[in-house]
TrEMBL record:
It comes from Dyadobacter arcticus. This is GH3 auxin-responsive promoter. InterPro entries: GH3 (IPR004993), GH3_C (IPR055378), GH3_M (IPR055377). Residues 298-362 form the GH3 middle domain. It comes from the Bacteria. Residues 401-493 form the GH3 C-terminal domain. Pfam families: GH3, GH3_C, GH3_M. PANTHER family: GH3 DOMAIN-CONTAINING PROTEIN.
């Protein structure tokens, strides 16, 4: 098998050398041209003059001047609801076979169209992921091992003329036939909708598999690994999967989970970050010497960037009318942007809900910095999720604790605002001292926060709670497992509901 693995590795390496990487700027121009050409006779394309745009000297400028920026609510209210009603040729040619049900936090019960063209783009990106994995200098035997993809149920919901499910389930249900021998947990277990039952079955079957790579959201992967370890009464996962070498993560920041996950391994893995959203496969880490991810500039997605500041984005995290928007050619490195995408699923200048920085324009590499809705700025503190995570890493080091989940909000206290935090914690140091340390760290690293603390933001409170409470709340209010993510920032009414849940279940 090692010989076969070396042959596969060489074939992957050869494919990568032949294909190479396209020039991102030129590739993006071609992608937009193809998107407009394909969709020009749809209702959307006719309204926004795609045919005329294709004849203009500067297609990108013309496109940006005519087509407005959309968030999900606007896209759905103006266009996508017609797809759910069975109409065709609305924002992309043809009808609609799949809708991705988003478990994100920017809007409730989102139905994102997933076209055949998008599924092809996701498959192409997946092949690129396999091709690029060779850059991580893995042994040949790795390429003969199985891949465990922990996602949502592949048993999709049947409607009159379409199927619904989370994007991980839709993607897994459409895996190419040749991948079946490598894919675990297999379609039978993957089709289970009950999270607890699915994990139980995975634990029962785990000893029969030779897993080399795991893919999934860190919080749910960790719960699965703990279940397997407990079921088989072993010390770490390498005792049952000795060839486990790679973890491809995504969906949330990985760093908060790394410390606790590595307690379940006999040795550290190679970690590869991915960016698969309900709206498409956005980016992937292509090389081991950076944690940044490379966009797919030639794969059915046109990217745009809106400066993430008060001039361009309102307090609800929505792009303001008339905001300056940049294509990849004009965007700058190390500036925080709201990401917009136009795609082969008929999303147009669409706010995906994430903020990013471009770390390398030549390689088209980005880092996710947070969520537009998870930007805490009620009293001018301007805290991003990245800054919150950085502050919590300091707390972990100072108090020798592990903090993986948190929720924060600006709430009223005696007619003034404070920041109230709920932190998951494996130990319970003095919460007042933790609040003081967190406050001090945020002041030192964010000048806007420091100014706010001297004015409208009158205090910081921290509650330390068991990690399990976050997942119990998720189970009771949403659903458990798959692509579900814990929100980091809440508005006060929702936060108070969460606080009441915590008080009831402590």
């Amino acid at each position: 098998m090692a010989v076969i693995g070396e042959l596969i590795k060489k074939a992957i390496e050869f494919t990568g050398l032949i294909k190479g990487d396209p020039d991102p700027v030129e590739a993006q121009k071609k992608v937009l041209q193809n998107l407009l050409q394909t969709a020009r006779l749809t209702a959307f394309g006719k309204k926004y003059q795609f045919t005329e745009t294709l004849e203009s000297e500067d297609i990108i400028a013309s496109f940006q001047s005519i087509v407005p920026v959309h968030d999900y609510d606007k896209m759905n209210a103006d266009w996508w609801h017609y797809l759910l009603e069975g109409h065709q040729n609305v924002t992309w040619p043809g009808g609609q076979q799949y809708f991705a049900l988003s478990s994100g936090t920017t809007s409730n019960s989102k139905h994102i169209p997933v076209t055949d063209d998008m599924l092809n783009a996701i498959r192409k990106a997946g092949i690129s992921e396999i091709t690029n994995i060779n850059a991580f200098d893995l042994p040949g035997e790795f390429f003969t091992k199985q891949i465990l993809m922990l996602g949502s149920s592949t048993n999709l919901i049947d409607k009159d003329d379409h199927k619904e499910g989370e994007i991980s389930g839709i993607s897994a249900a459409n895996l190419p036939a040749w991948f079946g021998g490598f894919y675990k947990p297999g379609q039978e277990i993957a089709g289970m909708s009950d999270w607890d039952e699915k994990v139980k079955k995975i634990a029962e079957q785990a000893a029969n598999w030779d897993i080399g790579c795991i893919s999934g959201i860190p919080s749910w992967v960790e719960l699965m690994l703990k279940e397997i370890i407990n079921y088989h009464k072993i010390d770490n996962i390498h005792q049952i999967w000795p060839n486990l070498m790679v973890y491809t993560t995504g969906g949330v920041a990985f760093e908060p989970y790394k410390k606790s996950l590595e307690k379940l391994f006999a040795r550290p893995l190679i970690y590869i970050d991915t960016y698969l959203a309900s709206e498409g496969f956005i980016a992937i880490q292509k090389r081991p010497d950076t944690s940044s991810m490379a966009l797919f500039p030639d794969n059915g997605i046109f990217y745009e960037f809106v400066p993430f500041n008060g001039d361009s984005v309102d307090e609800d995290g929505v792009v303001k009318p008339g905001a300056k928007v940049y294509s990849l050619a004009d965007a700058e490195q190390n500036v925080e942007y709201v990401l917009l995408i136009s795609t082969v699923s008929g999303a147009w200048r669409y706010m995906i809900g994430d903020t990013v920085t471009i770390t390398d324009k030549i390689k088209a590499e980005i880092k996710i910095t947070g969520r537009t809705k998870h930007f805490l700025n009620v009293v001018g503190s301007q805290l991003s999720v990245n800054q919150m995570n950085d502050g919590l890493r300091v707390i972990e080091s100072e108090y020798d604790v592990v903090i993986k989940e948190f929720i924060v909000a600006a709430v009223h206290r005696n007619e003034e605002y404070i920041h109230k935090w709920f932190l998951s914690c494996d130990k319970f140091p003095d919460k007042i001292k933790v609040a003081e340390s967190l406050d001090k760290t945020l002041k030192e690293n964010n000048k806007n926060y420091n100014v706010a603390r001297g004015r409208a933001l009158k205090g910081v409170e921290v509650e330390l709670i068991p990690e399990e409470l976050f997942y119990k709340w998720s189970e009771e209010t949403k659903k458990l497992g798959g692509q579900v993510k814990i929100p980091r920032v809440m508005k006060e009414p929702e936060f108070l509901e969460f606080a009441a849940f915590v008080e009831k279940n402590l």
